[in-house]
Design goal:
about 15% strand, 5 helices
C-alpha cells in the first residue's frame, strides 16, 4: 500500500503533538519512510517537514548521503537518531552496505544508533549473523557513535 503525501503529512502533524502533550522523556522522531523518502523528497525538504511538524529528528534509511542528511537536520536544530542498514547472511560471505564503514566514521560524535537488519538464511546463518553484528559493533565502538549497552550474544 502506498501512502499519499497528504496521509503522510497528516500522520506527522497528529503524532508529534500527541507525544509532546504526553510529556515523553524520550525524544520523538520520524522514520524517513513517512517523510517523503519514497516520493524522492529532497533531504532538506524532509528535514523541514520534520521540524515543522514538531519532531526532534529523523531515523534515516541506508548508509548513503549521511553528511547531507546531518547538515539538513542540524541546520534546523534536529538530530539524526538512527540509520537503518540491511545486511545479509546468505551468499558466499555475510555482507552489509559497503558504504556503512564510511557512514559510521561520518557519524562520529552524533550519538546515532545503527539499526542493522539481518536477512537471508544459510547453513551456520546464526553464527554468520553474530560475526556480522560484532564486526559492525566494533566499527561503531571505534568511532564511539553511540553510547549504548551492548546486546549479549552469549548462549
Amino acid at each position: 500500500m502506498r501512502l499519499s503525501p497528504i496521509m503522510i503529512a497528516f500522520s506527522l502533524v497528529v503524532l508529534a503533538p500527541c507525544a509532546a502533550a504526553q510529556g515523553l522523556k524520550n525524544p520523538f522522531f520520524a522514520f524517513d519512510n513517512g517523510t517523503g523518502r519514497d516520493q524522492q523528497l529532497p533531504l532538506d525538504a524532509q528535514a523541514e517537514l520534520v521540524k515543522r511538524t514538531g519532531y526532534a529528528g529523523i531515523g534515516f534509511s541506508g548508509a548513503q548521503r549521511v553528511p547531507e542528511m546531518l547538515q539538513a537536520l542540524e541546520s534546523r536544530g534536529l538530530k539524526l537518531f538512527s540509520i537503518y542498514v540491511g545486511s545479509r547472511v546468505d551468499g558466499e560471505k555475510p555482507s552489509y552496505d559497503p558504504a556503512l564503514p564510511e557512514a559510521i566514521r561520518q557519524l562520529k560524535g552524533h550519538d546515532t544508533v545503527i539499526w542493522l537488519t539481518i536477512q537471508g538464511s544459510a547453513p551456520e546463518g546464526e553464527a554468520r549473523a553474530v560475526a556480522l553484528v560484532r564486526e559492525v559493533a566494533d566499527m561503531a565502538a571505534a568511532c564511539t557513535i553511540a553510547d549504548r549497552t551492548p546486546v549479549s550474544t552469549d548462549t
